[in-house]
Amino acid sequence: MNDGALLFESFMLMLIGMGIVFSFLLLLVGILRLMSALILRLAPAEEPPAVPSPAAAPLPADTSEDLIAVITAAIARYRAPR
Predict the structure, then answer these.
(1) How confident is residue 46, by pLDDT bands cut at 50, 70 and 90?
(2) Residue 76, CB half-sphere, CA atoms under 13 Å: how many?
């Protein structure tokens, strides 16, 4: 066999191999889409029940002066230049 014939056969083998892989991938995508449509038709997705958001707990009327001081110090330290 000369180089030209060998190159032509290798090119044909490459095209056949790529065609088989491409065909298999197309078949796989088609099967997956078909299965997805079938699943959605047989068992549609259920919407979760609406859960009411919990109401914010009211703050106690007698807030501690220490708590306010700690929060103020934390805010001041956070805002301080680094």
Answers:
(1) confident
(2) 6
